[in-house]
């Protein structure tokens, strides 16, 4: 605990030395050199987000500087530092985890480069929107967890033995999807979260974690996955164990990928709460507003739909 406080107090010290400076502005011009520091490309969601940014670069007059941190927060930090050194006009950043990227965000600010956080945020106890970065463009992850829980409560009448597959440890979607879901479940005494373990938002890790947890908790009859990739992995593990997903074990998830909508149509998944990856156009419009001198709200919120057996077939053709 002492180490953790030391790290936080060191970060706060860095922040306070930078916090006094104003947020960098963005001059109006025809073309911009834009940095997009992707976390990894290990799942359809990430690939769809990157495609959205690369397509938007053509229509928004960006010279895009794209990097892929291959799942390493340390590499993402060095990717951001390299963008700063290249003198980009603006950086769009999905911080892989809430804390490791904080110093890089502050270094960009100190070099006069505005940062827009996209799809994940940083620890707002340390760095603030409107002071250290322009804004956070993204979904309400707590609400996504709440919606998943409420669907489950309605479906089961408030009963369930739950295994939870968490996203990347330390990432804002994992932290908040857990908080939103767990706080809702806690209101129902006949619902219990038997175990909660990270599958790192990855399909194969989700499968392996589920295999292990099923051996310890054979009575589990619900799996809540923080993203569809882990949910699909869990479905594979259930079927390998001779269980019928959607019948023996209910699956609730988040994202809205094509494979998830197909699993819903096939009766293997109950619900997936959308978490749209298509940030390119919103990034373009928000950046233009900022360059025009508009004051940007601290959270540019993305509205998400909910996919169930009632609408999955209607939306699967547009899914990624
Ligand atoms: C959510 C995003 C998450 C997705 C996962 O905004 O950060 O990361 O839900 C992805 O699929 O890996």
Automatic annotation (TrEMBL):
It is found in: Cell envelope. The keyword Transmembrane does not apply. Coiled coil: none annotated. Keywords: Signal. GO terms for biological process: transmembrane transport. CDD domains: PBP1_galactofuranose_YtfQ-like. Residues 1-21 form the signal peptide. It comes from the Bacteria. Pfam families: Peripla_BP_4. Residues 34-295 form the Periplasmic binding protein domain. GO terms for molecular function: carbohydrate binding. InterPro entries: Peripla_BP_I, SBP_2_dom. GO terms for cellular component: cell envelope. The keyword Phosphoprotein does not apply. PANTHER family: D-ALLOSE-BINDING PERIPLASMIC PROTEIN-RELATED, GALACTOFURANOSE-BINDING PROTEIN YTFQ. Belongs to the bacterial solute-binding protein 2 family. This is Monosaccharide ABC transporter substrate-binding protein (CUT2 family).
């Amino acid at each position: 605990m002492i180490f953790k406080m030391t790290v936080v107090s060191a970060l706060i010290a860095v922040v306070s030395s930078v916090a006094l400076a104003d947020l960098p502005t963005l001059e109006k011009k025809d073309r911009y050199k834009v940095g997009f520091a992707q976390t990894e490309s290990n799942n359809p969601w990430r690939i769809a987000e990157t495609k959205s940014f690369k397509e938007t670069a053509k229509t928004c007059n960006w010279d895009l500087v794209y990097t892929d941190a291959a799942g390493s927060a340390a590499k993402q930090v060095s990717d951001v530092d390299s963008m700063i050194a290249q003198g980009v006009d603006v950086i769009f950043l999905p911080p892989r985890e809430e804390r490791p990227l904080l110093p890089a965000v502050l270094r960009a600010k100190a070099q006069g480069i505005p940062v827009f956080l996209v799809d994940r945020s940083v620890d707002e106890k340390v760095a603030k929107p409107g002071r250290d970065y322009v804004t956070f463009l993204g979904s309400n992850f707590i609400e996504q967890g709440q919606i998943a829980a409420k669907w489950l409560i309605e479906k089961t009448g408030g009963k369930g033995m739950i295994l939870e597959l968490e996203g990347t440890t330390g990432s804002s979607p994992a932290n908040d999807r857990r908080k939103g879901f767990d706080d809702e479940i806690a209101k129902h005494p006949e619902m219990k979260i038997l175990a909660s373990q990270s599958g790192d938002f990855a399909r194969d890790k989700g499968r392996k974690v589920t295999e292990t947890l099923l051996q310890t908790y054979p009575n589990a009859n619900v799996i809540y996955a923080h993203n569809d990739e882990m949910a699909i992995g869990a479905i594979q593990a259930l079927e390998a164990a001779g269980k019928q997903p959607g019948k023996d074990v209910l699956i609730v998830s988040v994202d809205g990928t094509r494979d998830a909508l197909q699993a819903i149509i096939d009766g293997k998944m109950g619900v997936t709460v959308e978490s749209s990856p298509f940030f390119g156009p919103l990034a373009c419009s928000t950046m233009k507003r900022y360059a025009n001198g508009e004051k940007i709200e601290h959270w540019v919120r993305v509205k998400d739909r909910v996919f169930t057996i009632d609408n999955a077939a209607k939306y699967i053709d547009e899914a990624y």
